[in-house]
Design goal:
The chain is of the alpha/beta class. It is built from nine helices and 13 strands. Helix content is 31%, strand content 24%. The strands form four sheets. It has a five-stranded mixed beta sheet, sandwiched between helices. It has a four-stranded mixed beta sheet with strand order 8-13-12-11, sandwiched between helices. Strands 2-3 form a two-stranded antiparallel sheet. A hairpin with a 3-residue loop joins strand 12 and strand 13. The longest helix has 22 residues. It is globular, with a radius of gyration of 19 Å. Bound molecules: oxa(dethia)-CoA. Oxa(dethia)-CoA binds next to helix 2 and helix 6.
């Protein structure tokens, strides 16, 4: 019996605290006009002291399970995409498993920086299609406010905290199988990274600060190139053409990057979902948060096709095309 991976539930969690561009311009040599014109961002959310990637991810997961009508104990697997997990180990997925009470579920993390939700979703779909598992929670959750240098106007204006989740279930409903493209170029690792506490001693930051470091120009250029190409490949692999895509949900890094990709792929702007204005770049959480909001706004109807595309440190990137059905 063929199993089709179907999104049965979705949820998001955004911390209460809002940090606007006006708040930033009080502390830094920047302005709302500069930030908005270069990025499309107006504000972002900042986690409270006691909040972490696991607590936010668990809240998003709880909502997704509720919509899916699935009890935590029915979950077979939890996959978490994050590069700001609470601890080096245990995995954020195990912490979320415990918070949800998903006693039967296996749990592991995927770190592909900002693009992590794509390999997480692709893995979940493969487990379902292959018949290994049937109920899978996929979470993207990040707390970048803790790895940002709040004195660095080149980076701190871009990021925010939050979590999004989907519950996937295998159904017998006949629909198009998802197509995925996952790519990486590790030779560009130095262009976007956060130093690690386990690196060679000679690579430890001399100032002792484990903050995100980025070449914004290079990231911009490769993000547009890689996401455009991957999206076209995923559309082709699905046996579709760009006109068939009803909604495009790219990684919410920068409105200019998203507009450039949509143009290169041939998707009209009105089919591009954008919420970067309210949340900034939430890394691996950005696609599930955006997907969740698109569903809340009823932007997907039964049978419609949606494309996802992401890019991040590594460099790493991914794209996927899925058909929407509630099964
Ligand atoms: O998930 C992937 C994560 N990373 C990204 O998505 C980042 C991709 N890159 C970008 O989004 C853009 O490169 C940025 C938004 C980071 C920068 O935009 P830009 O249009 O490439 O600006 P720029 O770096 O060329 O800077 C232009 C000017 C510079 O001043 P000078 O040298 O022309 O005098 C910067 O020093 O703007 C200055 N600048 C700022 N001014 C006000 C840089 N940051 C700021 C700031 N406020 N926050």
């Amino acid at each position: 019996m063929k199993r089709y991976p179907t999104i049965k539930g979705w949820g998001k969690y955004l911390p209460e605290k809002v940090l606007t561009n006006y708040d930033l311009q009080k502390k830094l040599d920047t302005s709302d006009a500069w930030i908005y014109s270069r990025t499309g961002i107006r504000e972002r959310r900042i986690a409270a002291d006691e909040e972490t990637a696991s607590t936010m991810g668990a809240k998003a997961g709880e909502l997704a399970l509720k919509i899916a009508g699935i009890e935590p104990q029915e979950l077979d697997l939890i996959i978490v995409a994050s590069c700001t997990a609470d601890k080096i180990f245990p995995a954020c997925a195990s912490l979320i498993q415990n918070q949800l009470g998903a006693k039967r579920a296996g749990a592991f993390d995927i770190n592909a920086a900002c693009s992590g939700f794509l390999p997480a979703l692709a893995s979940a779909c493969q487990f379902i299609q292959g018949g290994t598992f049937n109920n899978i929670l996929v979470v993207g959750t990040e707390v970048y406010s803790r790895i940002i240098d709040w004195q660095d106007r080149n980076t701190c204006i871009l990021f925010g905290d939050g979590a999004g989740a989907v519950v996937l279930q295998g159904t017998e409903r006949s629909m198009r199988l998802p197509s995925f493209v996952i790519g990486s170029d590790g030779s560009k690792a130095d262009l976007l990274y956060v130093p690690g506490v386990c690196d060679a001693i000679s690579n430890m930051p001399a100032d002792g600060h484990y903050y995100l470091r980025m070449d914004g120009h290079a990231v911009f250029k490769f993000a547009v190139q890689c996401m455009s190409k991957a999206t076209l490949q995923a559309i082709e692999a699905a046996g579709l053409s760009p006109e068939d895509i009803d909604l495009f949900i790219p990684h919410q890094a920068n409105r200019r990057i998203m507009n450039a990709i949509a143009k290169a792929v041939g998707i009209p702007q009105e089919k591009v979902f954008i919420n970067v204005d309210r949340y900034g770049n939430t890394s691996a959480a950005s696609i599930p948060i955006a997907l969740c909001e698109a569903l809340e706004e009823e932007r997907l109807a039964e049978g419609s096709y949606f494309a996802l595309a992401a890019f991040g440190g590594g460099f790493s990137w991914g794209a996927g095309v899925l058909q929407w059905s509630l099964g």
